[in-house]
Amino acid sequence: MTQFQTLLAHAYTDDAHAIGAGVARDERAAVRWYQRAAEQGLAVAQYQLGYCYMTSTGVAFDVTQAITWYALAAEQGHAEAQHALGELYLGHYGGPRKPHEARRLLEQSAEQGFVPAQRLLERFFAQTQER
């Protein structure tokens, strides 16, 4: 059921609207469906819910909530969540500075081939070597 809930949430965002699937955009409904799937442990829904909190999509901007949901997805090995949480732990977007944890998460994401994490790690290493 959780994958269905995530698909339903996607339908209420731009994904389905953009391809003309006949679904009206409803960000709050999308968040409700992501929340249901995320609470059941689906990593992709946890990541998407964190993203909603970071982008004010259907909910108010909330870094703490984003960290909570990104962390749950990252623990399951979700590369995008590991990258997003790593960015926050570098102090980006108002996140808390935890450079060692940021590096660990970015390395995990990069090892899965997630290019944005690989690029961020390159910059991170370049900055630490310059100091």
CATH superfamily of the largest domain: Tetratricopeptide repeat domain
In terms of DSSP E residues, the strand content is under 5%
Q: Helix coverage percent of residues? A: over 70%
Topology as a string of helices (H) and strands (E):
HHHHHHHH
CATH architecture of the largest domain, by name, is: Alpha Horseshoe
Structural class: mainly alpha
- Biggest pleated sheet: none
| CATH fold-level name of the largest domain | Serine Threonine Protein Phosphatase 5, Tetratricopeptide repeat
Radius of gyration: 16 Å
Tally of domains: 2
Shape: elongated
Helix tally?
8
Mean model confidence by pLDDT: 86
DSSP strand tally: 0
Measured between the Cα atoms of the first and last residue, the distance is: 50 Å
